[in-house]
Amino acid sequence: RPGRQNLRQQFGRRLLSRADLDLLREHAGPGARGERTVLLLDLLYATGLRISEAAGAMFKHVMPLGEGYLLGVVGKGKKYREVPVPAEIIDRARRMAHARGAQGARANGAYLLGWVGPKGLTISLDPYEGVNASVLARDVKQAAERAAESVKAQDPARAERLLGASAHWLRHSHASHALEAGVALTAVQANLGHTSLVTTSVYATTEQSLRMQQMQEFWQQSSGDSDR
Hints:
With 228 residues, this protein is mainly alpha-helical. The protein is 57% helix and 8% strand. The chain has a 3-stranded antiparallel sheet with strand order 1-2-3. The chain starts with a helix and ends with a helix.
């Protein structure tokens, strides 16, 4: 349908490559704030969470499963789902929570992403206090802006695209790259919390990539035939 094609076109423009993600990580900023931004970037890309879901994630919502963890989140429409998270990301989040003072038996009540610097005029920070989603979104935006500035001279088109990047682009990138890697459409649907497979299938570009590869082989063969 035309509507679905428009969505696919929009998401195609709102994807970050692995190189783009690495560039954002490099420009996440200094100190603990930058470390938290890197953790946020990795969490959003690995899971497909919405920024609001990432902001509300707490260690008590996490349970081990196999080599990773499941994170319970309440998403759009107050629907509950469980999203796989790499063990490395949870372990890193625990180390950061410990560094900001969330220790002992109470540490389970801390947020994965907590305050790491001055908030307004507050001098003493509660290590168990979470961060507003708008603050986290701004951190991603600022990292994207710094990344864009770093490549503006040699690649203006890439810089212009990165200037438009937001936290939600990481959700799009998770879906598209997971499907390209062979993750089942139903698994990606569950990660994103989509009610319908139709919504998730907007990200399914693997078929198009395969079709392009096959057409290129055809064009090369046709070109070879015309030379003879």
